[in-house]
Design brief:
The complex is a heterodimer of chains A (492) and B (106). Chain A has 492 residues and is mainly α. Chain A is globular. The chains are: A mainly alpha (492), B mainly alpha (106).
């Protein structure tokens, strides 16, 4: 670990740019018909913000939440004890309830009778341009890991307030460019996915993975494509098809070994849903794309690959946006765990000799959803396992949550401030390998370990499963052992 | 948006991260100039092998290949790719090969 000095702090903040105003051209239509920020004349932003806020209150049930929270918020700052950003910066503006108060005070002043009267009496001018800038900066400094909610004595979900504030800002055209560009490609682009992978490229990649599995596991496996009526539709974060070969091969091998009925849809194959990070409207539109593919194939369940936010946005928001679908959303770790419990997976327990630790992705661990399953899988074939402290529901965020990992210009901030506690925690376990079963966490933890000079290897859980699972009749898990880094082609 | 200028009369449009906007204007001189912005002073045989593979794959499929496929087909291990292009295959090598900036969780 490099030490945290005033110099490090300056480096972390120096390259931070303000969230950018999005281009209006080609953007999926904006609900509530609020114009883009650069089209809004100077001085009009507060008015537009309040219009968007009012429209959202009218069309959603966020008012109930704001009503409750704005009354009970005690501003006691106990949440700061659970905020890893505050623990690193010690800046009062990083206290979660300070951030929440920015939005709650706007709500009180402009949308409650008491607040309006009080404002008149005290001469409070209400929302200003400066307050909008402060809010925009603040909500994208938070990784929305929701660890603060565990500590709040009043039960306030600060993550939800940040989520709402980001949506209102997006409605007036303030959203990070990286998220908007990816979501635009997903919703109205030619390829229909966030990484812009065309179908022929996906098919070529799948053929390549099939060859790899045949070479190294000695078994011919076909990835089922467009199988109508399959039990599971497997949908990975699309970037995995470019970056995470081992993770996908591990998933393919586990599903094959378990004899699971599954398929990959060719019309829609991206589980990523950045709508969760900046706009409920886009969250809903992306879910409808998944829904259309589910209906086309007539599958029974949605199976999400190793990805936290994709799993959460599907599992917890289908009920809201696609209630007629009524279809279970399962994470791949749950399925692999089930197969293990049924005795369908065989592992070579000698292959992974390194000391291993496990990072809980916030989006699947905080709700208490996927915590024990991966640990039981790990213990089935890894002897040297070390738990992080804290972990499980109480885990620390990788530092790249809430969409910040996709924003490259935030990298120094992410690796030196938000993820710093995670880097310390990983180093403290003394592990040689850290598992992070989430595309978002993987990218962040790789950068985090590199920038903080912590020599630990980062993998997905299925990367290790791929190495250790026994598929062939000869009982050999691995025909040509190799690590990712020193990997050489078989005929070289 | 910006304009990237270099010796030899090179002048092309790039985005704010320095990725060229129009993949068709790419040529070897431009690749050499872009490589300098990535901290690669001299493009040697291995650099060209990666860049040419990326370019050919992109022309065929409209996207960069899977990282593992890139390593396998060129015979250059991932560790070596990072030595050749310090900012990695997605950001460094793709930029020099004139591919668009990768989006999403990449």
């Amino acid at each position: 670990m490099i030490s945290f000095t005033e110099e490090t702090r300056q480096k972390a903040f120096s390259t931070q740019r303000k969230p950018e105003t999005v281009e209006s051209q080609g953007l999926p239509h904006v609900r509530f018909h609020v114009e883009e920020a650069h089209l809004i004349p100077a001085g009009e932003r507060p008015k537009k913000f309040l219009e968007a806020f009012a429209a959202i209150l009218k069309h959603t049930n966020y008012r109930f939440m704001l009503d409750q929270y704005s009354r009970v918020s005690a501003k006691c700052a106990r949440c700061s004890a659970n905020c890893q950003i505050y623990e690193t910066t010690h800046a009062p503006e990083d206290v979660p309830c300070f951030r929440s108060e920015m939005l709650l005070s706007i709500y009180r002043r402009h949308f409650t009778v008491g607040g309006a009267v009080k404002g008149r009496l005290t001469g409070d001018v209400g929302l200003t341009e400066e307050k909008i800038d402060e809010l925009a900066d603040s909500v994208y400094n938070c990784t929305a890991c929701r660890r603060c909610t565990l500590e709040c004595p009043m039960g306030i979900d600060h993550g939800l307030i940040t989520h709402l504030a980001r949506w209102i800002l997006a409605e007036i055209g303030i959203a990070p460019r990286a998220l908007v560009v990816s979501t635009r490609e997903q919703l109205v682009g030619a390829t229909g996915n966030t990484s812009a992978i065309p179908l022929p490229a996906l098919q070529d990649t799948i053929e390549f993975l099939e060859e790899e599995i045949a070479d190294y596991k000695g078994v011919e496996i076909k990835v089922p494509m467009d199988v109508e009526g399959a039990e599971y539709m497997f949908i990975a974060p699309v970037s995995d098809w470019m970056m995470e070969a081992e993770t996908l091969m591990g998933c393919i091998c586990a599903l094959h070994a378990g004899g699971v009925s599954w398929t990959v849809g060719t019309q829609y194959y991206d589980a990523i849903n950045y709508g969760l990070f900046y706009s409920d409207h886009h969250l809903e539109q992306v879910l409808h794309k998944v829904e259309a593919e589910v209906k086309r194939l007539g599958v029974k369940k949605i199976l999400i690959g190793e990805c936290g936010h994709a799993s959460r946005s599907a599992k917890f928001f289908y009920n809201v946006f696609a209630e007629q679908l009524n279809i279970p959303v399962i994470n791949i770790l749950e399925v692999t765990h089930d197969l293990l419990k049924q005795g369908k997976l065989k592992f070579d327990t000698e292959i992974i000799k390194e000391k291993v630790t496990y990072h809980d992705p916030c989006n699947i661990a905080r709700p208490g959803w996927v915590i024990e399953q991966p640990r039981e899988i790990i213990k089935a074939f890894i002897k040297n396992y070390e738990e992080m402290t804290p972990s499980g529901r109480d885990n620390l965020c990788c530092g790249g949550g809430g969409g910040t990992v996709s924003i490259d210009e935030l990298r120094p901030y992410r690796t030196l401030i938000t993820g710093r506690r995670k880097a310390e925690q990983i180093e403290k376990t003394g592990a040689e390998i850290v598992i992070a079963p989430c595309a978002n966490c993987k990218k962040q933890v790789r950068e985090l370990l590199e920038d903080n000079e912590v020599p630990v290897e980062l993998v997905g859980l299925h990367d290790l499963i791929y190495k250790a699972i026994i598929l062939s009749d000869d009982g050999i898990a691995w025909h040509d052992p190799m690590g990712d880094d020193d990997w050489t082609p078989p005929d070289a | 948006m910006g304009v990237f200028e270099a010796e030899g009369g090179i002048k092309v449009e790039v985005d704010e991260d320095g990725f060229i906007q129009d993949p068709d204007v790419w040529n070897e001189d431009l690749a050499k100039a872009l490589a300098k912005t990535e901290g690669v002073e001299d493009m040697d045989e291995e650099h060209w092998k990666l860049v040419n593979y990326l370019r050919n794959y992109y022309q065929q499929f409209g996207i960069a290949p899977m990282v593992r496929k890139l390593c396998k087909e060129t015979g250059i291990p991932l560790k070596r790719v990072y030595e050749l292009f310090p900012s990695g295959p997605a950001k460094g090598a793709c930029k020099v090969a004139g591919l668009p900036k990768p989006t999403g969780c990449v």
